[in-house]
Write a sequence for this structure.
């Protein structure tokens, strides 16, 4: 953003994003709850501090690029974009509705500010790598960065590892990946469905610089991206440990909320929880 | 406005050249004309003739290794960065292996990525059924926004490559491995979305795509010796179809033959049959691969085993015309 928010302000935005997510999913009557809530802090940090963007000029030539690979998590991106001023917040309530720009999975041409179309998993890292390759080797652009968000479940896809090998070979140092390490996927816990560990070791062996952070600590998120931008001979992946459903206690850690929206009663309780949390953040500074 | 055919056609001096070679020359020429063009290959750079581009523009060439899913998705990202990416591999692998990535990150995402499928069809010969891609036309033609081109010979492949470089759309170009007869000339017309009448006729329309057009020219020559005046329509662009030219020819002759070296299910013949059944229903006979796989062998042997040589098509059409009335409105 052109004006970067402070850590407490970003925490407040993350909470606003969580409330938006609950409200829009309840209205839509379908969609994914757990992942988006878990990623709210990262998206708040991205859209209010890390990314160089102009919400009023989505195709601004000097912008940073953000690709969403796990397209089903798009409610958190829509909420962050609306909070950042890419489009009116009221429009969030059209999520998944016929004629809406806010498709169930993101479609680039529908909504200015989206860089790709995604949903089928595993293809976002390659697209980010293609963009980063173009900047590094063809257009000689050094001051812009390409960020990509991946889910941990989607690391089951072979396409991800083809891209990891590619980015490692070409030392795509302007490429910065996030992995939302929330340990859940549709059929259960990631280590039961298809084990990913040693995840850090895997990425390192592909030639990546790997950082592991608490994905709910805004300062850590911002610091990790600063470090990633300073590394000039390798791509960086940030394994962000998150709690699925974060902020809504009855959703936290429960894989059943991966692909489910709250009903109106659940949404009411969730919003109540989030408002309470909001109070905590304001008064206790959430550990910052 | 007749279509100039190479005078050496059917003579001992008939030129032979693989369509992939035409592609290689066309890509280099397109690269010279437009700096936004980049090329990506999955470890088959000489096979797909992309080495001509690589050697001329090393900075704009990307080796992705044997990873066809990554091939098109990296290309999609490069397109977002303003490039016009050409991706090449064998058609069995791209679009054979990476169809979903093409669907989502190229066509739905609407990026002008070019899918170049070399070694398509039964001209792939000795490599056998795994490598003889016969389903690519059907796979690509069902995708919204995708342009599908199967050039008839190497000269046309060169022109088609240069044309899709500048069309701003997701596009698929289908190429053959082996040398095939060159029937067109530098001055022959080529435009995306246009079909061409190579020979006028009144008794039956022989409509071909890709390298099968040569077999139809040969069939028409044999049919003429047996009293059947066949019209030959070359349809290099399978999508979008040149409905006007196709319907006008069908209307003139009242009987239509289609030919492709691909599965007839969902392919070029299907596209023609769909058009005619909706707009001008009439007898249609489709030549192509009839719901089976290929096998190893000399291309000529495989063509023969499938009844797809010009001689066999002529014989079959002769019989068919004898038992099928011309449809006239």
């Amino acid at each position: 953003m052109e004006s970067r928010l402070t850590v407490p302000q970003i925490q407040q935005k993350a909470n606003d994003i969580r409330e938006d997510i609950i409200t829009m999913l309840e209205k839509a009557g379908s969609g994914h709850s757990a992942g988006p809530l878990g990623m709210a802090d990262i998206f708040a940090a991205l859209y209010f501090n890390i990314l160089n963007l102009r919400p009023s000029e989505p195709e601004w030539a000097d912008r940073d690029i953000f690709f969403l690979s796990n397209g089903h998590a798009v409610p958190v991106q829509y909420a962050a974009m609306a909070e950042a001023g890419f489009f009116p917040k009221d429009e969030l309530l059209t999520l998944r509705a016929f004629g809406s720009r806010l498709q169930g999975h993101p479609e680039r041409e529908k909504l200015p500010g989206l860089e790709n179309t995604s949903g089928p998993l595993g293809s976002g890292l390659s697209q980010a790598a293609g963009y980063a390759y173009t900047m590094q080797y063809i257009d000689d652009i050094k001051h812009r960065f390409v960020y990509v968000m991946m889910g941990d479940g989607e690391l089951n896809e072979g396409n991800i590892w083809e891209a990891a090998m590619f980015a490692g070979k070409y030392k795509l140092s302007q490429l910065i990946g996030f992995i939302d390490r929330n340990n859940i996927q549709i059929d259960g816990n990631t280590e039961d469905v298809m084990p990913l560990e040693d995840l850090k070791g895997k990425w390192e062996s592909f030639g990546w610089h790997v950082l592991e952070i608490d994905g709910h600590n805004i300062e850590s998120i911002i610091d990790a991206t600063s470090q990633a931008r300073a590394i000039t001979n390798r791509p960086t992946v940030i394994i962000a440990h998150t709690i699925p459903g974060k902020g809504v206690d009855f959703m936290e850690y429960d894989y059943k909320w991966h692909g489910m929206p709250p009903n109106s009663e659940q949404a009411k309780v969730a919003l109540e929880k989030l408002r309470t949390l909001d109070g905590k953040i304001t008064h206790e500074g959430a550990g910052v | 406005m007749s279509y100039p055919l190479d005078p050496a056609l059917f003579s001992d001096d008939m030129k032979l050249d693989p369509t992939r070679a035409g592609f290689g020359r066309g890509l280099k020429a397109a690269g010279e004309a437009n700096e936004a063009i980049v090329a990506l290959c999955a470890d088959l750079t000489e096979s797909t003739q992309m080495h001509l581009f690589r050697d001329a523009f090393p900075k704009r060439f990307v080796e992705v290794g044997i990873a066809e899913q990554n091939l098109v998705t990296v290309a999609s990202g490069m397109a977002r960065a303003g490039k016009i990416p050409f991706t090449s591999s064998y058609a069995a692998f791209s679009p054979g292996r990476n169809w979903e990535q093409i669907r989502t990150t190229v066509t739905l995402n609407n990026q002008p990525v070019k899918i170049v499928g070399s070694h398509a069809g039964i001209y792939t010969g000795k490599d056998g059924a795994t490598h003889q891609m016969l389903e690519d036309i059907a796979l690509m033609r069902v995708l919204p926004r995708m342009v599908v081109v199967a050039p008839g010979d190497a000269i046309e492949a060169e022109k088609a490559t240069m044309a899709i470089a500048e069309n701003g759309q997701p596009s698929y170009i289908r190429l053959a491995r082996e040398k095939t007869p060159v029937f067109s000339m530098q001055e022959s017309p080529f435009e995306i979305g246009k079909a061409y009448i190579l020979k006028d006729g009144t008794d039956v329309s022989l409509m071909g795509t890709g390298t099968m057009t040569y077999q139809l020219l040969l069939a028409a020559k044999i049919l003429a010796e047996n009293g059947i005046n066949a019209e030959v329509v070359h349809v290099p662009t399978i999508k979008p179809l040149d409905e006007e030219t196709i319907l006008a020819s069908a209307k003139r002759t009242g009987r239509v033959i289609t030919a492709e070296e691909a599965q007839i299910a969902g392919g070029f013949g299907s596209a023609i049959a769909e058009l005619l059944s909706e707009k001008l229903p009439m007898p249609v006979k489709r030549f192509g691969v009839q719901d089976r796989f290929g096998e190893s062998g000399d291309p000529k042997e495989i063509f023969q085993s499938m009844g797809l040589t010009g001689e066999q098509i002529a014989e079959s059409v002769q019989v068919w015309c004898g038992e099928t009335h011309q449809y006239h409105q």
Notes: Chain A has a mean pLDDT of 94.
